[in-house]
Amino acid sequence: MPITIQNPEFTFIGLLVLAYLLGAIPWGLILARIFAREDIRQKGSGNIGATNVTREAGVTPGLLTLAGDIFKGAIPVYLALVAFGPANGSGDIYLSAVALAAFLGHLYPLYLKFRDGGKGVATAAGCFLVVSPLAVLAALVVFIMMLVGTRRVSVGSLSAAVALPIAIWVTTHSGAVTVAASITAFFIFMRHRENLKRLLAGTEPEFKRPRSMRK
Predict the structure, then answer these.
(1) Helices first, then strands: H and E counts in the chain
(2) Contact (Cβ atoms closer than 8 angstroms) between residue 139 and residue 125
(3) What is the SS3 assignment for 22?
(4) Inter-helix orientation angle 121-131/153-172, to 10°
(5) CB neighbours of residue 39 within 10 Å
(6) What is the tens place of the pLDDT at every residue in 126-151?
(7) pLDDT > 80? residue 3
(8) Phi, psi at 175, each rounded to 5°
(9) Where are the domains of the chain?
(10) Contact 59, 53 (CB under 8 A)
(11) DSSP 8-state secondary structure symbol assigned to residue 111
């Protein structure tokens, strides 16, 4: 049940700002510097997400990056859920907007001058996990199946992005949240443009063991 708030407009604006600022925290960059003392933007694919951090800095910072990126999406959306109610009720527009604010914060982080953001998969998962755990579970199953089948993280990520809006609609029947999930999927595809080019050319590399685990 949503709580009773005196100034819903002020609360909503505050949650949007909080969501963006949390989403903009570049956990991959921070953790790679702590664990490997290097700028992850200069290593591997140059991405600050968990996949590149795992490859170049190790499993521990990679897993912590994944957790950080998920939670920075989940926390503001959970607060919006408490304040405004569930996605299949009166809170759908509020939840959708807060989720997009967190997601766009990850893509265009203030702390990095709106550049060098991640691809958004983990943060999107965190946002919509609060909205519909079943939808994210379905997308996760698709991700794992495609990753195992192709050994390429990008294929798993893109497949999960396609599955997410469909699963959101099936589980919530909320037009607003489905639109938000579709916008999220669009941006994930845009952030995977180079991966798509390599996939079409047959040059996309397979996911390999992290550098710290290689002999």
Answers:
(1) 10, 0
(2) yes
(3) helix
(4) 20
(5) 13
(6) 999 999 999 999 999 999 999 999 99
(7) no
(8) -65, -40
(9) 8-213
(10) no
(11) G
pTM above 0.85, yes or no: yes
Contact 141, 125 (CB under 8 A): no
Chain-centre distance for alpha carbon 119: 7
195 contacts 148 by C-beta, under 8 angstroms? no
Q: Is 118 left (phi over 0), alpha (psi -120 to 50) or beta?
A: beta
Contacts of 190 (CB under 8 A, 6+ apart): none
| pLDDT value at 45 more than 90 | no
Q: Tell me the three state secondary structure of residue 80.
A: helix
What is residue 112's DSSP assignment? G
**Distance between first and last Cα of the chain:** 53
Q: Distance between CA 170 and CA 73 in Å, rounded? A: 22
Question: Sign (positive/negative) of CA torsion 123, 128, 134, 136?
Answer: negative
Distance CA 48, CA 64 (A): 12
Residue 13, pLDDT above cutoff 70: yes
